[in-house]
Amino acid sequence: xxxxxxxxxxxxxxxxxxxxxxxxxxxxxxxxxxxxxxxxxxxxxxxxxxxxxxxxxxxxxxxxxxxxxxxxxxxxxxxxxxxxxxxxxxxxxxxxxxxxxxxxxxxxxxxxxxxxxxxxxxxxxxxxxxxxxxxxxxxxxxxxxxxxxxxxxxxxxxxxxxxxxxxxxxxxxxxxxxxxxxxxxxxxxxxxxxxxxxxxxxxxxxxxxxxxxxxxxxxxxxxxxxxxxxxxxxxxxxxxxxxxxxxxxxxxxxxxxxxxxxxxxxxxxxxxxxxxxxxxxxxxxxxxxxxxxxxxxxxxxxxxxxxxxxxxxxxxxxxxxxxxxxxxxxxxxxxxxxxxxxxxxxxxxxxxxxxxxxxxxxxxxxxxxxxxx
Length: 373
Prior knowledge:
Elements: H1 3-29, E1 59-63, H2 69-87, E2 91-94, H3 99-108, E3 113-117, H4 119-129, E4 132-138, E5 144-152, E6 168-170, H5 176-188, E7 196-198, H6 202-210, E8 216-221, H7 235-239, E9 259-261, E10 268-270, E11 273-274, H8 289-292, E12 293-298, E13 302-303, E14 306-309, H9 315-328, E15 348-351, H10 358-367
Parallel strand pairs: 1-2, 1-3, 6-7, 6-8
Antiparallel strand pairs: 3-14, 4-14, 4-15, 5-8, 5-12, 5-13, 9-10, 10-11
Helix pairs in contact: 2-9, 3-4, 4-10
């Protein structure tokens, strides 16, 4: 074979080999296609919770069922409307089934409840979940009230000692004046009642005594007014220890036969004296209630009822409500709401401190009392 031909052939083979190698390298140098990133949706945001006091999240105004629920709902709505006009907030009036249910609701809804609860209820609720007091009731100048033991006027009972074994009517075990204070006082006196009848409220207890269904009942006592519209004894006299006999708690005996509701049925009057204790609450259905039911004894003084707020109630909203309540207490409409004698009979309100209810806490501790379930 011609050497020149061989040389040319080898040259072509080497060149072809180099060309194929270059093509292969070029092919491998092409970057592989990458997948486009998958678009992801932004996480959905939770809608903001309605503000406390908005129409979607009304403030619950709780009233204990110590008097007729219809009166509470009607008068409570008067208050709710007034507070709404003053603050723009929305309120929902609620009457739980018992004192214990009121406490339970406040603790279960700590950020949107306000409640008108007695001293015992407040003492329990503050210890249970931190409910906080704002105001106390003033009734005709008194920041305190009392429990009274009532019996039929013609009954044999003359002293507390006579109640040994007697049938006892009371409204609710969560009522300070209706149950708790009498429980402590009767035990301290060594008196054991007989059958106990839970009536459902102060009005029902007075009715039970009036009808002879129970031997005695325990309800709230407020100082009567004299014909000039002033209390028959002053709070200063009480503090000074000048009120020492049962006669001083009651209107003059000669005026009792003349007790009757006034013309429009809103007051129970006796020769101008006005009865303010629980007996007055049934004056329409029982106009002769004072003639038929008498006071057997009056308890030690009890701190007045409270307006309290749930433990997590918004401070700014609470401040608006407090200011509006103070203003509302100075209006005539107050007397058709919580100021009505048929409602809770609050003639006004005053700031209250937690320490004022230490006396009630001591009473709870001494008895081991717990709110009924």
